[in-house]
Amino acid sequence: MSEKYDVIVIGGGPGGYVAAIRAAQLGYKTACIEKRINKQGDPALGGTCLNVGCIPSKALLDSSWKYHEAEEAFADHGIGVGKLNLDLDTMLQRKDKVVLQLTGGVAQLFKANKVDWLQGTGQLKANKQVVFKPLEGDEQTLEAENVVLAAGSVPIDIPVAEVDQQIIVDSTGALEFTSVPKKLGVIGAGVIGLELGSVWARLGSQVTVLEAVDTFLPAVDQQIAKEAMKQFTKQGLDIHLGARVTGSKKNKNSVRVTYTDGDGEHEETFDRLIVAVGRRPYTEGLLSQDAGVTLDERNFIYVDNQCRTDVPGVYAIGDLVRGPALAHKAIEEGVMVAEVIAGEHTQVNYDAVPGVIYTHPEVAWVGKTEEEVKESGEPYKTGAVPFAANGRALAAGESAGMVKFVVDEKSDRVLGMHVLGPQASELVQQGVISLEFGASIEDLQLMVFGHPSLSETVHEAALATDYKAIHVAQRRRKK
Ligand code: FAD
Ligand code: AMP
Questions:
Q1: Is 345 marked active-site?
Q2: 317 CA to centre of ligand 1 in angstroms
Q3: Which ligand is located closest to the Cα atom of residue 242?
Q4: Chain segment 77-109, per-residue pLDDT in tens
Q5: What's the CA gap between 83 and 7, in Å, rounded?
Q6: Cβ(330) to ligand 1 under 6 A?
Q7: Which helix (H) or strand (E) holds 201?
Q8: Considering its fold, how many domains does the chain have in total?
Q9: What is the pTM for the complete model shown?
Q10: Within a domain: residue 473?
Q11: Cα(120) to centroid(ligand 2), Å
Q12: pLDDT tens, position by position, 27-47
């Protein structure tokens, strides 16, 4: 007889492991099937995010930023460090340690919550049956009242630059360079391309980013995106917009890349090339012919607002489904489906999912951009205030960037908050809270903000929407 579970989750990334823990908390007999083997050769939970995504990239972003500061900023503070030395091995080992600590922590949480971690591959069949193929041993068929598909995503391949993880790498390979490439090419000026490009630029690479689209960060408020472009260019990232890569030819230790832009065809040779052109849902092997779930035209598993697929009792979450490919979106969907299974009415607020780019300065946003609101035709007001007017930012030598609010003129409701600057990933949470609570901009204007703090720029930007900011000269008074 096959083993029966209340909930089987396929995929142990931030969506899947959270769904499994929450389901177990709610009293369900739960299993999570995860097939990942980490770089040490051991089975690992945590998915893309903990193993080869959010966490290792942030570890390297933090290490490389410290190096950059020691090189460029310490002297300003009167700190001399002598000749700087980069021990890349130690830097990479530290990153691996952080990853192991976190992925091991998820395994502990599974034990504590009595979630069965089934190490191997899962495939959904008809009638909520799941074929489980262990890493070792025979295949077995499991049954479940509920199945949560959380298989995540993988990097998109492009035939014009085939990844070999040596010279041409994807985001996973770009976390493992054993020496700093002298000349580094990056295809794609999206979140991942900019973050990984920044890591290696700070460590000394000469970085060129080739981006097919003419607009920089099209999903980001364009006032913020334009300023970000200036800042990143100042840091030495050579970003070519409207530059479509059309081919690549590898030599022993370099790659010649051809690309076209408005001026015609160009060629450039790099020591290493990162392909960061986006990610696609990972459905290979996940669904048997008779599984019954529907895919949409882009191969995402089709789900409703609460992540139900077309098969009753089967849910899909995270990077496998529509919406931004972000760990925190996957996490909240994991919580939601477990609670929906339990008959609760949990609903992720998709209008208040923040986006962050962990460059320096960071870019973070939530809600609508000015461009989106303008297009809707509804009257709106904006307020933008630079960190250059903030004492704490100046004291820290972190005065690049700004906070901007987009506000509904009629209702005074906050529609969007956009930040380029220090700790933008933390500051944006104030916008998330505002949207969740349906705050008016007046609410933020009337709040007391600690001084000196970076958050004061949030306050000033709120005041600026009504020409009431104190620390910037505002051109026009409110009538
Ligand atoms: P995943 O994390 O992809 O996990 C899915 C898991 O399912 C995988 O471990 C896979 O092995 C397993 N699996 C797949 N198929 C099967 C099967 N058939 N049987 C068993 N197991 C299976 N997001 C952020 O929010 N913030 C960031 O800073 C950030 N940085 C990133 C940096 C990089 C370099 C990358 C690549 C991504 C980053 N992301 C970031 C995105 C984030 O990693 C994803 O949005 C998130 O991991 C999605 O979670 P998930 O649970 O849907 O899938
Ligand atoms: P994201 O989806 O945010 O990770 O961004 C990936 C980026 O890669 C997008 O902005 C694409 O326009 C860009 N891109 C895709 N293919 C190419 C290509 N052949 N040459 C240059 N840029 C590309």
A1: no
A2: 11
A3: 2
A4: 999 999 999 999 999 999 999 999 999 999 999
A5: 57
A6: yes
A7: helix 191-202
A8: 3
A9: 0.97
A10: no
A11: 32
A12: 999 999 999 999 999 999 999
